[in-house]
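YM 10:42: Outer membrane beta-barrel protein sequence, as discussed on the call
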Amino acid sequence: MKKLITMAAIVVVSTVASPAFAQDSKPFHGPWVGATAGYDVFDAGDGEGEDEGGSEDGFAYGVALGYDYNLGNFVLGVEGEIGDSSVSASDTDVFEDGDELILKAGRDLYAGIRLGVPVNDTLMIYAKGGYTNQRFNLAYTLDDETESDGDNIGGFRLGAGAEFAFGQGFGRLEYRYSDYGSFSDTDLETSRHQIMLTAGMRF
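YM 10:58: structure's back
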């Protein structure tokens, strides 16, 4: 009798645990964390011509985390990121003739959503969008005198990419565009184009 009860208990536990295990083993599902790095192009100008404003390229890097829900035909996720960059951009004749304004990109905060379509168990393509808040450090020069300041500017980010899964690890290749609008009371429009690689792990 005890053996029969034990066997029945094993069958019940196995029956209940199997769907749960299958659910937990879904690809592109659950919490994740990763490190990201890539190519960053920072634009600053008034948009009135190629000679107005400037752009610089450099290196962007950061850490990201989030949670994905695999709903079968698509994946819905939330994510956040904090990053930094080595680039800056400049413009002349912003307030007065002969002046120069240099903007350097500082820390960047991002929060948004991601919508993906699994191609198979190891490949997913996705699009993303959300809010980004960029810290800009400013140096303003007029008549050989320089003043420094900083400001945080909110904007939006749109992106698309592909994610490759291998066990609990994953890798991503992603393009994204961020628009922060004008800086303070100037006509200096700020935006960024980035191509980023991310390596991370799911839990």
